[in-house]
Each structure stands twice: as C-alpha cells, then as structure tokens.
Amino acid sequence: MSTLLTVKDLRVQFPTRTGVVDAVRGVSFTLGRERLGIVGESGSGKSQTGRAIMGLTPPHAKITAETLNFDGIDLLHVSAAERRSLRGNRIAMILQDPKYSLNPVMSIGRQIVETLRTHEKVSKSEARKRALDMLAAVQIRDPERVFDLHPHEVSGGMGQRAMIAMMLVTGPELLIADEPTSALDVTVQLDVLAILDNLVRDRGMGLIFISHDLRLVSSFCDRVIVMYAGRIVEEIAAKDLHNAKHPYTQGLLNCMPKIGADTHPLPVLDRKPEWAA
Amino acid sequence: MTTSPVKALVVDKLEVTFDRFRALRGVSLDVMPGESFGLVGESGSGKSTLLRAVAGLAPTSGGSISVNGKRLDGKRTKAFYREVQMVFQDPYGSLHPRQTVDRLLLEPLAVHGFADIEKRILRALDEVGLGSSFRFRYSHQLSGGQRQRVAIARALILEPSILLLDEPTSALDASVQAEVLNLLEQIRRDRKLTFLMVSHDLAVVTHMCDRLMVMQNGAEVERLSAADLAARKVTQAYTRNLLVASEGFVRPGTPAA
Ligand SMILES: Nc1ncnc2c1ncn2[C@@H]1O[C@H](COP(=O)(O)OP(=O)(O)OP(=O)(O)O)[C@@H](O)[C@H]1O
Ligand SMILES: Nc1ncnc2c1ncn2[C@@H]1O[C@H](COP(=O)(O)OP(=O)(O)OP(=O)(O)O)[C@@H](O)[C@H]1O
Ligand SMILES: [Mg+2]
Ligand SMILES: [Mg+2]
C-alpha cells in the first residue's frame, strides 16, 4: 500500500503562564489509503496531532518533527500559501467542535457552496445542487430548510454533519476526522461512516479517525493507535482491540458501560505514573 | 392513602416553533424527585430544544412546564437557576474562551452570593478530575474533554436540585466518562438530585436512567423503562433500529461478527 503521510517524532509544545505544556511528545506513524483510528485519554494530544498535520496549530506553539511528509511534500518547510492550498484541496479536517468552527454569520448552505466554489469552477446553481445533495447524503432531513439556517439554528449533530458535508464536498485525499460522529445518533452515525468507508475504498482516500468510541473504532478502522499523555502507547489491528496489551487500553475497554450490564459504579482506571513516562 | 410526592418536572404537550418549523410537537414527560430520566433519538429530533425550553432558552408556543409543582411562565428567575442547572451539548458555546477556568467557576458563585468561594472552586475541580493546575488556564487552552468537565463543574457548583444534562460525556474518553458518570450518580444519590439527560449512547442511558423517551422528528416515539430497553422489550421499529446500530459498524459484504 502506498504511503500518503509519514509522521516521525512529532512534538507540540505550548508555553503558558504556569509553564510549558507538552501536548504531543514524539508521535510517529504512517498512513496509507486506509482507516487509521486514534483513541486515547482526554487531553492526550489527539486533536493537536491532527491540527499539526493540517497546519492549524496556534502560532505561539512550538512544533518539531523529524519528518512530516504528505505525498512527497515536506509539510514543515512549505510556504504558508502552499499550506493553505493543500488545506483547501488535498487535506481536510473535520474539527471536534464543528459549531464553533463554522462561520457563525453565514448560512450553512452558503458555507458549503463557497468551499466548493473556491475549489472547483462550478456555476452557482450547480454548487447549490451539490451542496443540497451532500446534506441529503449525510442524512439531513429537509436539506432545503437547513441550507438557509445559521450554525446556531441547527442541532449539535446537524452542525457536525454540515461540517462533514463541507469537508467532503471537495474530495480530499487525506481526511482527518476529529470525533466526527460524537453528536450523531447511532443510525445516522453508521450512515456517515458508510460514506467515509466508500471514500477510502473507492477513491483511495486516507482517513485518520479520532474517536472516543472504542466499539466504533474497532468495527470501522483497519488499525488503531492508542495515545496517552502525548505519546503512542500501543498500535494494534482494529479487530484485535479487545486483546489490547497496554493496561491503559485494557482499562479503557473495561470502563465502558454495556447495555444490560448493571455495574455500579463503573470500573475506573488506576493510572500509573509510568504510563506517562 | 399516601399522597404522591410533587413531581420534580412535568412537561405537558409542549410545543416549540422556530419561524414556521415545529421543533417540538406536543411532547409530554414527567420526572419524579431523585429520578433520572433519559432522552434518546434522532439527531435534530428536538432533545436539546426540550432541555432548553425547560431552562427558559427556547420559545414555547403551547403546552406547559412545571418544576417542583410550580408552573413556569416567562422569564426564569435567579432562584430558578439555583434549582435548575444545565450542562450544554456544546462546551465551546457555553464557556467563554477568553475566561480562565477560575473565572468561569467563580461567576455563578458570585451571582448567587455564595461565601467560601475558594473552597468550592477547589472541590468542584477535584470532583471532575481536573487538578488545580487547570485553574488558571483559559478555556481555549483545554482539550474537548477537559472543557466538558469544566462545564459540568460549573453546573454542579451551585448545588442545584435538577440537572439538565445534554450529552454530558460524548466528548470524553471511556475512562473519564466512567469517572464522570460515577460522579454524577454519586451526587445524585447524596444530594437527591433529579436528572434529565440526553445521550446518543444507549449503554450510557440505560446505565444512568430509570426511564427514557425515544424521540424522532419533534415527537415521542415511545417511552419505556431502561430495563425494558436493555431486555430489548421495545414496541417501535425505530427503537429497534437504534439497538441494532448500537452494535457497531458492519462493512457491507462482510458477515456480521
Ligand atoms: N492553547 C493551548 N495552550 C496550552 N495547552 C493546550 C492548548 N491547547 C491544547 N492544550 C493542551 O494540550 C493537551 C492535548 O490537547 P488535545 O486537544 O490534543 O487533546 P485530545 O487528546 O484531543 O483530548 P480530547 O479527547 O479531550 O479532545 C491537553 O492537555 C490540552 O490542555
Ligand atoms: N434557533 C433556531 N432556529 C431555527 N431552528 C432551530 C433553532 N434551534 C433549533 N432549531 C431546529 O430544531 C430542531 C431540533 O434541534 P435540537 O437541537 O433540539 O435537536 P437534537 O435532538 O438535540 O439533535 P442532536 O442530537 O443533533 O443534538 C432542528 O431541526 C433545528 O434545526
Ligand atoms: Mg480532542
Ligand atoms: Mg442536541
């Protein structure tokens, strides 16, 4: 399988009033035209890893890496303009807080249309039609109504799907999806995953799928990376997730509530300092 | 004959309309004091709107809402927000990004004239598993899950009797989710709290709630006990679909595992 993305020893640091925060501490992985899951502790650096690849790290942060390469392009040393053009065209990211990332003063439909039109030469009416089709594809009821709504007028899951529609309408080669389905009910969630799945299978898109939902990751992804305190602590085939070796990963599986199991209180993790070493 | 206790929350034939769109179409439910009631259902079906309507943040156009036996009308008072607090679905929207965690927790205490502010802030942070090193961070310097925990701490700090929880743990990894769910259960028991809780995760809802309502398109699909849902004793096809979808992704062309 051809490699689309190579990340080697990625580090992201934030200076703050109370000292330096090491958000990402030496993360390495490669991605082909496949579905790579990233799971891990809240605050372990999943989003910051995605943002670094996208070039969306806050400017005051410090990024270093031995390699950060997308399809032969050295992402650490490209011009800001080239970075922007990659971001608009070949690499896309579904951000974790979509309603916050969407433009609050522009209707959902117009945002999708404008994204499409900066990417492709299409007429206004054609762009409108494609945007409506995309909204319908992500299972939005009544796309015509939602097209004209502003972000604060849609539900959590509708905002998430609007963001997905906007990122997919341009057909990226690499998609970083940060908790893309956390606000969706389980049936819509599966429909959205089926769309992403088709893009990987039919168009050879590379997908980084960041999620807290272990059940979803193990059934949807090919490989899974487990992060803890800014590092990768385990990499495992998704279907073998239930046989994970690292105590953090095993612990994660145990503390999920299960339908019908009546465990009160839920087991919690006994975090060991050496996990963060 | 024993008189039945006053219900903590009664929603009766509630209607919410935005422009011409009916977001809630005559939804009714009631929650006993100390009970935990769940809302699940289709994205966009009106779950957040229902919680927001109770909190006085959505325009009702019919029906009624009563809290502890008192019918609510018009603007909610300061005393109401002592009793009823909401954890919003979207922690970015509810926490001002340019405020420190300290300010965010201090503000409600100041508004409601609490003493022992220092002690309460430290306890609130501790309860949601955020060390005191987070106290002077700005909310935009937090991860998604850290921000959600601040939002929960902020709602709990006033010691309300009713908590409206909109997807309180969907931004949290399984380990932190377990801690937050345990915390919520423990506080509910200790302080006799009443919960109205939205979640897409049927396992979370059956774990946390006694009864629940399934919603679709602004209306009730069915109301059932968590035990019946867990035992798959459901009457509606939509609820059954939710149960099937809860099992995970099945790639077309591959036999289900
Ligand atoms: N601007 C910032 N300044 C200081 N620290 C930051 C900043 N942004 C993020 N961090 C810290 O970096 C760490 C990693 O954050 P990140 O958002 O990548 O976590 P995450 O794994 O995505 O967590 P979650 O699952 O909760 O979304 C966190 O501890 C967070 O507090
Ligand atoms: N201010 C508003 N203006 C117009 N329509 C609105 C407004 N607020 C909500 N709606 C509409 O009401 C419907 C219900 O939204 P709500 O947020 O209650 O859904 P939800 O069940 O919480 O969904 P999710 O699970 O995706 O969060 C949606 O179709 C939404 O577009
Ligand atoms: Mg994150
Ligand atoms: Mg909602």
From TrEMBL, chain A:
Biological processes, Gene Ontology terms: transmembrane transport
Localisation: Cell inner membrane
Keywords, in A-Z order: ATP-binding, Cell membrane, Membrane, Nucleotide-binding, Transport
MF (Gene Ontology): ATP binding; ATP hydrolysis activity
Major location (coarse): membrane
Record's keyword annotation contains Amino-acid biosynthesis: no
Domain of life: Bacteria
Gene3D superfamilies to which the protein is assigned, alphabetical: P-loop containing nucleotide triphosphate hydrolases
The ABC transporter domain, residue ranges: 5-254
Listed Pfam families: ABC_tran
GO CC annotations on file: plasma membrane
Topology versus the membrane: Peripheral membrane protein
UniProt cross-references to InterPro entries, sorted A to Z: AAA+_ATPase (IPR003593), ABC_Ni/Peptide_Import (IPR050388), ABC_transporter-like_ATP-bd (IPR003439), P-loop_NTPase (IPR027417)
Family listed: Belongs to the ABC transporter superfamily.
Protein name, per record: Peptide ABC transporter ATP-binding protein
Organism: Phyllobacterium myrsinacearum
From TrEMBL, chain B:
Pfam family, one: ABC_tran
Cellular component terms (Gene Ontology): plasma membrane
CDD domains linked: ABC_NikE_OppD_transporters
Entry-linked InterPro entries: AAA+_ATPase (IPR003593), ABC_transp_ATP-bind (IPR050319), ABC_transporter-like_ATP-bd (IPR003439), ABC_transporter-like_CS (IPR017871), P-loop_NTPase (IPR027417)
Listed EC numbers: 7.4.2.10
SUPFAM superfamilies for this protein: P-loop containing nucleoside triphosphate hydrolases
Reactions performed catalytically: glutathione(out) + ATP + H2O = glutathione(in) + ADP + phosphate + H(+)
Primary site of residence: membrane
UniProt entry keywords in alphabetical sequence: ATP-binding, Cell inner membrane, Cell membrane, Membrane, Nucleotide-binding, Translocase, Transport
GO BP annotations listed: transmembrane transport
Compartment annotation: Cell inner membrane; Membrane
SMART domains assigned to the protein according to its UniProt record, in alphabetical order: AAA
Example GO molecular function: ATP binding
Topology of this chain in the membrane: Peripheral membrane protein
Span of domain ABC transporter: 9-242
Gene3D superfamilies: P-loop containing nucleotide triphosphate hydrolases (3.40.50.300)
Similarity annotation: Belongs to the ABC transporter superfamily. Glutathione importer (TC 3.A.1.5.11) family.
Subunit structure: The complex is composed of two ATP-binding proteins (GsiA), two transmembrane proteins (GsiC and GsiD) and a solute-binding protein (GsiB).
Function: Part of the ABC transporter complex GsiABCD involved in glutathione import. Responsible for energy coupling to the transport system.
Protein name stated in the entry: Glutathione import ATP-binding protein GsiA
Native organism: Phyllobacterium myrsinacearum
Lineage: Bacteria, Pseudomonadati, Pseudomonadota, Alphaproteobacteria, Hyphomicrobiales
